[in-house]
Amino acid sequence: MQVDLVTVAVAVETPQHTGLGAPLDYASTAPGLPPGTLVRVPLGRREVPGIVWERPPGDAPPELKPVREVLASLPPLGDSWRQLVGFAAAYYQRGLGELALAVLPPELRKLDDVQLTRRIARLHRAEAPPAAAPGDPLHGPALNDEQRAAVEAIGAAPGTYLLHGVTGSGKTEVYLHAAEAALAAGRQVLVMVPEINLTPQLEARFAERFAGRRLVSLHSGLTPAQRLRHWMLAHLGAADLVLGTRLAVFASLPRLGLIVADEEHDPSFKQQEGARYSARDLAVYRGHVEGVPVVLGSATPSLETWQRVLEGRYRRLALPQRIGGGVLPRVRLFDMNTLPRQRGSAGPALAPPLVQAIAERIERGEQSLLFLNRRGYAPVLHCTACGWKSGCPHCSAWRVFHKGDRSLRCHHCGFTERVPRACPDCGNLDIAPLGRGTERLEEQIAELLPGARVARIDADTTRTKGSLEAQLGAVHAGDVDVLVGTQMIAKGHDFRRITLVAAVNPDSALFASDFRAPERLFSLLMQAAGRAGRDAEQAARSEMWVQTWHPRHTLYAALRRHDYEAFAAGQLEERLAAGLPPFASLALLRAEAREAAVAQAFLRAAAERVQAQAESMGVTIYPPVPPPVARVADVDRMQMLVESPTRGALQRLLAGWLPQMHTLRAQHKGVLRWAVDVDPLAI
Ligand SMILES: Nc1ncnc2c1ncn2[C@@H]1O[C@H](COP(=O)(O)OP(=O)(O)OP(=O)(O)O)[C@@H](O)[C@H]1O
Ligand SMILES: [Zn+2]
Question: Which positions bind Zn(2+) 2 (predicted)?
Fold first, then answer.
């Protein structure tokens, strides 16, 4: 019997170096395979998963390999999902199939159709809808006028909204109500938070409120089996709410009705490897494609978002007050120059008046939070005789002294050794820590405030599963007087007994080379301040201390007035003058090699190929330079900044340029990796 073969385009994961980004043609005996269908196809000698895609018109090559298997039991991935993936691949300059398959749950790619059918049947059996009937009245607090206005605006029309509210102003309450409206209309809701350790809190709050609804989480902390199950429930339309981190932006949601990105300014929304996408920006695109509202929430919006509000492209919904009329903590800038100088020492960890203020809190049974964005005991050890320092032999960085396990640890490559007894260069026994990390701060507070119950939360104390929850539990229960930690504790947590927050040493970020450093510092300090006085009763006597050598800096002046708008205006003025985002579009081309010169030559050659074209488009390609940490794990890194007045010009240039890089690389032996980062967060 004659079997008719049709040509189908299939997005498959092709290795980047082949330069094949587009879908490949295959022959199929199944007529009319809808786009979005999962299939298995041969690629080289392997059989790989793929997704049927729209086929551009044109002749198919004569000898096509056949599609091996159609995974027909899974409903096809929808048009808008494919549009999102197609846009992301083009915008961030990745292969379509590579991105499309990378954002599916890894387990899904391993299953054949029989296994998949079984899984789906099991899901339908096991996941009977929750007992409580949907439509339970919202048993939360009654909204205030601003909150109600925000919920109404979001429900009234699709578009991008900035929910601009200080910490504790009731933003989450607005998300809950907007979600309720979308759910009541039979739609699904996607809520994204920047960090995985914030998902359990949010999940608990949503789960409590939406007892009758099916809610799933999507983040990298799930087991592969959980991630598949949650993804499938979303894709099959069985889950009503998806809560997750940045990867959730790619969840398949056939009934999507609302997207929320909480703390939209947070750098964690940007993926830092592979396809370096911004989940916040993709959420805005997705909302546009699907015609659903997108709510970006923040107390300190990213300047990109803020500029779009000023241009009228996003609508600002303001929550200007803290719930319960609580005031924001009084900001006290402590001038470190007023302390008596101590020769050869970094000075005291905490200014005496700050120690006094903490002691008063302890007496009243209140808590204090000390924030220092550097973990370990000291960032470097040095020899007082010969000047030796604890450099990493594999990186251009110091190794950090961790006193707990007496190790010297490189935070870039992980290289770890026991602390030497004597200087490895001259044998001197007097090797001393320079500077201060959270471990040392914890020790010094115990000395300054004998009897105080001090706890420390940072990446080192929260390695084991459950330890973060346990430590946060102790803080909430009032078993801790002083909490020391890195930015992990500055964000999101709803502490009720903290009345003093102190930034121990925030100055270094004022003078960092990265143009976004001030923006990041300001939002971190505003966030940290927001941890104090969350209980309205205590708000009036809550304080935020900033220990600084530059008390007159404009950033701190704006912080003191909690004046985001003044800060943003100043920053935008500087960005405009310097031709930086949001007034320009950037891309960063990176290359790595054993020797810097090799990476540099590669990038130079790449620049030469498009120099003339770039100039004609008004795009500037800067010479390659080493990044702040140039060498990591014995590999040298170089980066080249591309700056364009518009997104469009940058996109056109990159699209024609990057395919040439694959051949160029073959001519530059020794280049280990290269990558492009569109809209890089740090340069
Ligand atoms: N209208 C309201 N009436 C009474 N209480 C409210 C109201 N809205 C919110 N709350 C309560 O106030 C507290 C802070 O609200 P919420 O967590 O929504 O603020 P937020 O802006 O999301 O805070 P943050 O950004 O600091 O995490 C919560 O305990 C919440 O239940
Ligand atoms: Zn190292």
Answer: 392, 395, 410, 413
Same-domain pairing of 550 and 669: no
Residue 140 included in any domain: no
If residue 12 lies in a helix (H) or strand (E), which one and from where to where?
strand 6-12
- Residue 370, both tokens: 């000390």
Task: Write the CA distances from 373 to 379, 473, 561, integer angstroms.
Answer: 11, 22, 23
| pTM listed for this prediction | 0.92
Specify the CATH number for the domain of residue 597: 3.30.70.100
Same domain, residue pair 39 and 177: no
pLDDT value of position 461: 87
Which residues span the domain enclosing 402? 379-434
pLDDT lower than 50: segments of the chain: 137
d(CA 140, CA 177): 9
Tell me 250's DSSP state.
G
Same domain, yes or no: 590 and 620? yes
Domain shared by 389 and 494, yes or no: no
Mark the binding-site residues for Zn(2+), compressed into ranges: 383, 386, 392, 395, 410, 413, 423, 426
112: nearest Cα among 54, 52, 48, 53? 48
Domain for residue 21, yes or no? Answer: yes
> Quick one: which atom of ligand 1 is closest to the CA of 299?
25
Residues 107-116 have pLDDT tens digits of 998 888 999 9
Identify the residues whose C-beta falls under 6 Å from ligand 1.
141-144, 147, 165, 167-173, 323, 492, 530
User: How far, in Å, CA of 539 to CA of 542, rounded?
Assistant: 5
CATH number at residue 32: 3.40.1440.60
Q: Which residues pair with 316 in a beta bridge?
A: 162
The total of structural domains in the chain comes to 5
> What is the pLDDT, as a whole number, of residue 464?
82
Any domain includes 683: no
